[in-house]
Task: structure prediction
Amino acid sequence: MGYQTIKVDTTVGPVGAIITGVDISKPLSALAIKEINAAWLKHHVVFFRDQSLTPTQQADFAANFGDLDVYPFMTAVDSNPNVIPIIKEADAELNFGGAWHTDTSYVERPPKATVLYAVEVPDTGGDTLFADATQAFHDLSDGLKNILESESGIYSPKLVHGREGSYKQAAARSEMAKDYGGAEDFAEQEVEHPLIRTHIDTGEKSVYCSLPHTHRIKGWTREESIPLFKHLTEICTQDKYVTRFKWQQGSLAMWDNRCVFHNALNDYQGMRRHMHRVIVQGERPQ
Ligand code: SIN
Result:
């Protein structure tokens, strides 16, 4: 596709594209929004560099692509209810999002897009990996595709946010206590989604389940389910599907949670990383 308002560079890796030629702190023309949306649907994650955004400018940019959602487990920044701070202090051990997953897949209508902006980045490390779950699904054997498509998953925040969850335990050790909100009963809830979802806009199928959010396959025990989730994670996150994005202050990524996994690397011990995150409402996975 030819673009009139933006430039789209796909050399960043197997999935994703860098968009240049646009200042996203300003209101965008209808054509620019249409073109950014088209590039995003085509490449699954789009990156912008050298932007300068207040929380409200970031939220306004995200709102060009749908209604904004509220993340249930963290308190928003003071200036905007839709922007949550993701901060790892220099003395913290656990990072937020440090495993392969798609965002908030344990709610009935998980967010379609996540818009993440880098406020402060470590000198080295803190990259985010993105994996193309559509291409990974496409490359599976017909036998495994058929099995996965005939099963559904039970998704739950309990593994991460529940009473025994990893964040809860870290918060108790006060590493993430500052912005971390409890919502304990909600954290134990379960919801059923397909393991393979079909994208509502592109019609493409993608692997959707993940170790941190899919508790088990429906009708299977968790112990029986884990080996399959591990296997799927391994094959979907092979180098041939993965782009490694190196953040700079002012970088922004917008990814499509319906077809791309991500993993925030936790390799910058002793340094601070500060991001702002906005999510855009999605539909019930089909
Ligand atoms: C997330 O999983 O939403 C956070 C990703 C990151 O901080 O790179």
Notes: Residues 86, 96-97, 103, 114, 116, 128, 262, 264, 275, 277 surround succinic acid (CB under 6 Å).
